[in-house]
Amino acid sequence: MGIFLKTEIQPECLLGVWEITEDFDTLYSMVRLGRAERARLDSFRSVNRKLEWLSVRALIRSMKGEDVRITYNKENKPFLNNGKARISISHSRSLTAILVSSDKRVGIDLEYMSGKISKLGHKFINSRESITRDPANRKFHLYLHWCAKEALYKICDRQDVNFKEGITIMPFTPEDNGFIRGHVVNSAGEEDFDLEYLHHENYALVWSCKK
Fold first, then answer.
1. In this predicted model, what pLDDT tens digit does every residue of 52-74 receive, in sequence order?
2. Which residue of 50, 89, 91, 181 has the lowest C-beta tally within 10 Å?
3. Which of the 8 DSSP states describes residue 69?
4. What would the 3-class secondary structure string for 136-176 be?
């Protein structure tokens, strides 16, 4: 199927989602890899990992309309073209999501909603947060909280942030799509963030883009 969502959510902040339905050869034909990238691809033993990795390169090429290189700093944080643009990447099952900006911080998380999270809420929900008791929406609500925290963890560069207590998601009622407010506390101080989310089939997707 390839790219099924590409939208500019803010000026100079582009969101894209790719559904992996292609086989290896088809995805490989969609990208142009340098020597180091081919070596990196060859190092993966899992076919699914290869497909994920290729889908990221195919998606960013489709989003930007040109060949770009994803590089990583010493903390394994990705950038485009040696730091000229910021990028956040997430995979889950057959979907790949990317948020990219030339002038803003970005964070995105995508999760396939299995039933496992219902037993794990106490590990990442703090006392200031609330989850619906409605059994029809509880799993989705939990996943939105998890994805929102992951997105904020990424946008803050994973630096000195306590995932459970340092990131708080303000109360909200989950819909198929909407907005969330988040608050992050670390040694650098406190900061508020706006996030947006959507529900696609059995996936939850949350992202944030901020100067």
1. 999 999 999 999 877 788 888 77
2. 181
3. -
4. CCHHHHHHHHHHHHHHHHHHCCCCCCCCCCCEEECCCCCCC
Collapse the DSSP code of 28 into the 3-class scheme (helix H, G, I; strand E, B; otherwise coil) and give the result: helix
Residue 107 near residue 101, CB atoms below 8 Å: no
Which domains, ranges and CATH numbers included, belong to the chain? 2-103 (3.90.470.20), 109-210 (3.90.470.20)
Residue 98: name the closest of 141, 151, 177, 26 by CA. Answer: 151
Out of 93-102, 113-122, 166-175, least confident range: 113-122
Residues near 207 by Cβ (< 8 Å), separated by ≥ 6? 9, 15, 88, 97, 99, 106, 107, 108, 109, 151, 195, 196, 197
For residue 155, the one-letter residue type is: I
Structure tokens at 209: 């883009």
Question: What residues does 14 pair with on adjacent strands?
Answer: 8, 100
Length of the chain: 211
First to last CA, the chain: 33
| Mean pLDDT, residues 13-31 taken together | 96
pTM above 0.85, yes or no: yes
Reading the block at residue 138, the tokens are 């509880």
Q: Hey, what are 72's tokens?
A: 């990583």
Nearest-angstrom CA–CA distance, 162 and 186:
8
**129 compared with 187, residue with greater pLDDT:** 129
